[in-house]
Amino acid sequence: MIKLFQGPITGPKFFAIFASFFVVIIGVNIVLATQAIRTFPGLEVGNSYVASQSFDTDRAEQLALGWQIGAVVHQGELQLSITDAQGNPVEVASLTGTFGRATTMRDDQTPEFAFDGTLYRAPVTTAPGNWNLRFVAIAENGARFQQRVVVLVD
Q1: What is the pLDDT of residues 24-67, one digit of tens each?
Q2: CA angle, corner 64, sides to 98 and 112, nearest 5?
Q3: Where are the domains of the chain?
Q4: Cβ partners under 8 Å of residue 94, min gap 6
Q5: Per CATH, is 48-153 categorized as 2.60.40.10?
Q6: DSSP secondary structure string, 13-70?
């Protein structure tokens, strides 16, 4: 048996045990904080105050479009559907986005979407789990539509 655990608890022995608890706790905190900083992408917007100034106007413009969004990954292909209030497919003026994991930027991809008359399709590389598609679509009338869509991959 370790000599530390034999005999009476003396002042130096108690201090060593007590200090070791703090060393372990601080060490674990440092490891977890380092992992959180390294893997989390961080900012959503550069300046939240500036972004908030046009939020209501942007939201009203986006809601006026009446679009419904859906996204799935099927056989290595990201399929994005954009439909209007009547359920008809919408062809947008431009579509850009980022497809990646929710918690890290390591797997981020920039899909090259092609419209087939019904869906926007783009090849992607995935693994099972929770993925996010953050995209910006510009309508034919110039209205900006942006959204984050959660995509679950089996």
Answers
A1: 999 999 999 998 887 776 666 778 888 889 889 999 999 999 99
A2: 20
A3: 9-39, 48-153
A4: 137, 138
A5: yes
A6: HHHHHHHHHHHHHHHHHHHHHHHHHHH----SSS-HHHHHHTHHHHHHHHHHH--EEE
